[in-house]
Amino acid sequence: MSLTADQLQKTWADFKVFKSPKARSEIINHYSYLVKITAGRLVTSLPGGLDREDLIGSGVIGLIKAVDQFDPTRDVKFETYAIALIRGAILEMLRDEDWVPRSIREKLKALDRTVLGLETRLGRSASESEIAEEMGISVVEVCELLVRMGRTNVYSLDDILGGGGSSEDHIHFIELIVDENANPGGEVEGKEIRRILATGVDKLPERERLVIALYYFEGLTFKEIGKVLGVSESRVYQLHTQAMNRLRNFLKQEGAVPTR
User: What is the DSSP letter of 181?
Assistant: First the structure.
C-alpha cells in the first residue's frame, strides 16, 4: 500500500530517528515500483541465461541500500538517489555475468581507440560517418556499436571512482554527490574528490555536461536524452563515452583515482 506524503515523512523519521524495522520495510515496499521501472528501462532484451527476476533481485538490493543510506534531511529526491543505486546494482550483476561476447568486446575496444584517436587528431568530436570511414565499417554498424558500448560502459563513472578496489570499498558517483561521508577514506577525502569531480564536470563541453546531468541526476534514459537534445540514441551514447574518458583522464591527472 502506498503511503501519503505525510505518512512517508513520518515513516522516514521512524526509521532514521527511532530505527524502526517496520518503518524500514514500509519504505522499501512503498518504493518497490522503482525497481521494476528501472529494470525495464535499463534492459529491454535479456542476455541469454538471465531471467527478469535476476534483474529484479539485484535491483531490490540496490533499493535496500538506498533506503539504508539515504539522508532525508538533504536536498535530494530519494527517487533520484534510489534509481542510481538500483541501476548500479543491476549493471554490476550484468558485468559479473560477463554477458558481452568476446568478439563484441574486441570491436568495442577498437571503437574506443578510434574515437579517441580521431578526437585527438581532429580536435573535436568525431561524427559517426568519420568513425565508420576510419574503421572501414558502415555507419549503421558504428551506431550499433555505440549503443552497445553505452550499455556496457554506462556504469563507468562509478568504476572510475571505485579505482578497482573491492565492492565494499566502491564509491558510487551518486552517493558521493549526496552523501558527504560516502567515501570510506573519510569525510575530508570525500569532499576533495567531490570538488575535483565537480571541476572536471564543469570542464566538459556543454552537451556532454548536459548528458551527465540528465542521466545521473534526472534519471533519464539515453533514448530520452536523445529526444531532449534532438539527436540519435547512439549519439548520446557517444557523448556519454566521451565525457567518461575526459573525466577519467582529468581525475587521474589530479591524482583523485589511481592510474591503471
Answer: T
Handedness of CA 10, 15, 19, 20 (dihedral sign): positive
Residue 200 makes CB contacts below 8 A (sequence gap 6+) with: 246, 247, 250, 251, 254
C-alpha cell at 193: 574528490
Q: What is the pLDDT of residue 65?
A: 93
Q: One-letter amino acid identity for 165?
A: G
What is the total residue count of the chain?
Answer: 260
Helical spans, DSSP H, in 43-138: 52-69, 78-96, 102-122, 128-135
Spatial separation of the C-alpha atoms in residues 63 and 81, rounded to whole Å: 9
The whole-number pLDDT of residue 163 equals 46
The grid cell for 237 is 551514447
Q: Could you give the domains of the chain? A: 5-96 (1.10.1740.10), 102-253 (1.20.140.160)
Question: What is the pLDDT, as a whole number, of residue 234?
Answer: 81
Question: DSSP state, 169?
Answer: G
Q: Which of 26-35, 194-203, 247-256 has the lowest mean pLDDT?
A: 247-256
Here the cell at position 246 is: 575526459
Q: Are the C-beta atoms of residues 117 and 207 closer than 8 Å to each other?
A: no
The per-residue pLDDT for 112 is 81
Number of C-beta neighbours around residue 94 at 10 A: 23
Average pLDDT rounded to a whole number, residues 44-66: 82
